[in-house]
């Protein structure tokens, strides 16, 4: 009976061929072409057929480019802010929502998840209005409730990265909540009951039981969070276009600016490869770090 | 009955055609080409509301389409910001549409590779005698012309102010010096409003709508001409650095402008003016068109109080105190690949000629009191309201002109300049550093 429904090998291969071909075409081909173009001087609307091979010149320029490294620093800032803000807060909120006292769990889940369904450009526009210095909600609150003075929030170079992080945190907190909700739901309830009988408080239960038992889900969340923030672009572009000056430049935004606003495709390709390599390193590094840090907890 | 219906339908068709031609009578030249012609531009329907150049472009394009039913005109219309990015991508991939709008600053880089040399074709144009040939300068490289300057010759730097508000502050006309503007700013600040609204959130506004004119007051026109020709001038020259210092002083050290000038765009700045949160704004002719349209319909008193002025003169500037930057920033260009088919090329040339010819100029002159590449003769200002007439006189009669910086050189240079100027105005960079970095980008890319 089982044999009769098992598809033949060539049918399996044929079905797999389509998604694999699409994956190769949309992921590996652009990556390889970017790698190829990164060895050329290709700028000012010049055709690729007339571009000049310049070896490692673009990479030498990249290594010495202070704007690229400032942008990388801003990406790291985003990663840290979002690990704390997205995953950290999501974990705390999930614990609250899972407590016996919480009511309307489905409502929390739905409304929490809602912002992650909105496009990043719309998120950027919504928060631009909230941060607007003359007509924004935030300044209304500061002036009328706190008695302070109006601020040009997004014009403050020193804190602009914090302000552009807030919409990203707001957008994805619900996304991680949904993942953590389902991970915690998979833990045997008897373990929590035993802990309660043993006198463990909520904090102790969270640290010594919940966190170690959802360690692998946390690692997935961490990978998604790091990867997502290493390629952050849309909402920041909408809110500040990287400004003031270079203050809120992130790597993808710098790559876009160099490629399409400065029409320097060769160097832009080198920046793309730089983003790819650095993202792999940061994702790998963060996974390694978390693995080491949580090994003790698991034991 | 059938005959009567047929007659009625024929009459309706003829009248419709006549009506379409009556609006913008493009020359219905006999063209041998029968096929598709692709054009890419940024005159969206939203853009054309109240904007004479865009409205004229769309109207003329529709008339040309109607006059040549044998040609399928495929339009790709994007908003201006998206247009600039997309056209650069197409240029890089050598995949430009048959006809497109070339930005002045890309002319040198795109000449021959992406834009066909049109010198002889333009000189043979039936409208050549009526062309304002000065408009060709940004699209000319080594004596060769690569496009028909298009849209309207509008200013990029105009001070639009509320006469009543400034009279209240003690100024019957707009101040001629920045010192006087600073005095007025004290008065307006006391009332909780800004003296002048400005929006540099898009980064390009400070260049196009301010420094391009203020820089000319310090350097004079020869400096920029030398910069274009690469004949010795540099961004690090003392006079230009002085212009940057003055800009930094005005925006960073006085209370003249709105605090959020580096965050909001010109669209926000004009709303500050319209709502009365600012007594004036600095922008381009597109801002004037928007303010005119909104106030005309909503606030007659404020509409009648609109005044126009040039930038006040800095105390240490020595050139043209009545100057403003005006010109045509784009030109209709033709993809060199089109030349492979002579019939198609003839169609593309005809389209370019009509989009910039008398049909377009007459439309914008009669409906908006604006001018384009082709002269439409003297504009009868008696047909327009006082504000439109005043803006026409201010733009074309009462002021002297200077160049729009970013119609020339290269986007790679201006992107560095615009970004660093934004940082400078926030007090994070010195004018000398901005000038040095821009000069480095100029030497590397131009």
Category by helix and strand content of chain B: alpha/beta
User: What is the residue-averaged pLDDT of chain A?
Assistant: 90
Please state the structural category of chain A: mainly alpha
Portion in beta strands of chain B: 5-15%
Low-confidence stretches of chain B: 1-23
Determine the most extensive contact between two protein chains: A-B, 33 and 40 residues
Annotated CATH homologous superfamily of chain A: MetI-like
Question: What would the CATH topology of chain A be?
Answer: MetI-like fold
Mean residue pLDDT of chain B: 91
Poorly predicted parts of chain A? none
Distance between the termini of chain B: 72 Å
What gap, in angstroms, lies between the N and C termini of chain A?
Answer: 45 Å
Oligomer: heterodimer
Helix content of chain B: 40-55%
How would you explain this protein's 3D organization?
The complex is a heterodimer of chains A (299) and B (446). Chain A has 299 residues and is mostly helical. Chain A is 72% helix and 1% strand. Chain A has a single domain, classed as MetI-like fold. Chain A has a two-stranded antiparallel sheet with strand order 1-2. In chain A, helix 4 packs across helix 8 (160-185) and helix 13 (251-261) runs antiparallel to helix 14. The mean pLDDT of chain A is 90. Chain B has a 5-stranded mixed sheet. In chain B, strands 7-11-13 form a 3-stranded mixed sheet, with helices on one face. Chain B has a 3-stranded antiparallel sheet with strand order 9-8-10. Residues 1-23 of chain B have low confidence and may be disordered. At the A-B interface, helix 13 of A face helix 4 and helix 18 of B.
């Amino acid at each position: 009976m089982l044999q009769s429904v098992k598809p033949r090998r060539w049918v399996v291969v044929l079905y797999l061929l389509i998604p694999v071909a699409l994956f190769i075409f949309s992921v590996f081909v652009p990556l390889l072409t970017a790698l190829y173009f990164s060895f050329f001087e290709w700028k000012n609307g010049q055709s690729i057929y007339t571009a000049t091979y310049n070896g490692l010149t673009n990479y030498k320029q990249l290594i010495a480019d202070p704007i690229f490294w400032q942008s990388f620093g801003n990406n790291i800032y985003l990663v840290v802010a979002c690990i704390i803000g997205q995953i950290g807060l999501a974990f705390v909120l999930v614990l609250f929502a899972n407590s016996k006292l919480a009511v309307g769990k489905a409502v929390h889940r739905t409304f929490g998840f809602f912002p992650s369904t909105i496009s990043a450009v719309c998120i950027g526009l919504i928060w631009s209005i909230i941060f607007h210095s003359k007509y924004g909600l935030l300044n209304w609150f500061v002036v009328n409730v706190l008695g302070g003075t109006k601020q040009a929030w997004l014009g403050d170079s020193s804190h602009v990265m914090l302000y552009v992080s807030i919409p990203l945190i707001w957008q994805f907190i619900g996304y991680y909540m949904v993942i953590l909700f389902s991970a915690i739901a998979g833990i045997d309830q008897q373990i929590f009951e035993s802990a309660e009988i043993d006198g463990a408080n909520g904090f102790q239960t969270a640290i010594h039981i919940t966190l170690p038992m959802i360690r692998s889900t946390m690692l997935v969340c961490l990978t998604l969070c790091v990867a997502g923030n290493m390629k952050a672009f849309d909402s920041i572009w909408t809110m500040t276009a990287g400004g003031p000056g270079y203050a809120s430049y992130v790597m993808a935004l710098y790559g876009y600016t160099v490629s399409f606003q400065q029409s320097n495709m060769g160097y832009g390709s080198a920046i793309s490869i730089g983003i790819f390599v650095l993202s792999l390193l940061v994702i790998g590094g963060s996974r390694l770090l978390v693995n080491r840090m949580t090994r003790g907890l698991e034991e | 009955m059938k005959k009567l219906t047929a007659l009625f339908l024929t009459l309706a068709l003829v009248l419709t055609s006549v009506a379409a031609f009556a609006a913008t009578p493009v020359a219905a030249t006999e063209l041998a080409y029968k096929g598709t012609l692709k054009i890419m531009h940024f005159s969206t329907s939203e853009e054309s509301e109240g904007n004479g150049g865009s409205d004229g472009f769309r109207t003329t394009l529709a008339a040309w389409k109607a006059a040549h039913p044998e040609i399928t005109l495929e339009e790709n219309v994007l908003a201006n910001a998206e247009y600039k990015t997309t056209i650069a991508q197409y240029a890089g991939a050598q995949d430009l549409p048959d006809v497109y709008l070339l930005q002045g600053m890309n002319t040198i880089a795109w000449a021959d590779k992406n834009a066909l040399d049109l010198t002889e074709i333009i000189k043979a144009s039936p409208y050549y005698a009526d062309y304002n040939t000065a408009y060709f300068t940004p699209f000319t490289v080594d004596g060769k012309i690569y496009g028909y300057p298009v849209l309207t010759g509008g200013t990029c730097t105009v001070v639009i102010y509320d006469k009543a508000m400034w009279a209240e502050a003690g100024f019957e006309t707009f101040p001629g010096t920045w010192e006087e503007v600073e005095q007025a700013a004290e008065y307006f600040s006391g009332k909780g409003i800004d003296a002048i609204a400005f929006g540099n959130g898009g980064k390009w506004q400070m260049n196009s709508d301010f420094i391009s004119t203020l820089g000319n007051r310090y350097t004079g026109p020869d400096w920029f001409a030398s910069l274009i020709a690469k004949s010795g001038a540099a961004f690090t020259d003392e006079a230009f650095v002085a212009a940057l210092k003055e800009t930094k002083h005005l925006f960073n050290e006085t209370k003249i402008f709105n605090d959020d000038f580096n965050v909001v765009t010109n669209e926000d700045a004009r709303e500050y003016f319209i709502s009365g949160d600012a007594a004036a704004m600095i922008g381009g002719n597109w801002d004037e068109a928007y303010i005119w349209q909104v106030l005309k319909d909503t606030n007659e008193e404020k509409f009648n109080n609109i005044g126009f002025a040039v930038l006040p003169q800095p105390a240490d500037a020595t050139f043209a105190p009545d100057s403003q930057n005006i010109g045509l920033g784009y030109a209709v260009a033709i993809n060199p690949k089109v030349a492979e088919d002579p019939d198609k090329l003839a169609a593309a040339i005809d389209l370019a000629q009509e989009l910039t010819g008398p049909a377009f100029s007459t439309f914008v002159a009669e409906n908006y009191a604006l001018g384009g590449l082709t002269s439409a003769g003297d504009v009868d200002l008696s047909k327009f309201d006082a504000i439109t007439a005043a803006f026409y006189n201010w733009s074309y009669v009462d002021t002297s002109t200077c160049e729009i910086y970013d119609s020339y050189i290269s986007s790679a240079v201006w992107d560095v300049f615009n970004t660093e100027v934004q940082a400078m105005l926030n007090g994070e960079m010195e004018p000398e550093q901005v000038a040095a970095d821009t000069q480095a980008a100029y030497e590397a890319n131009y």
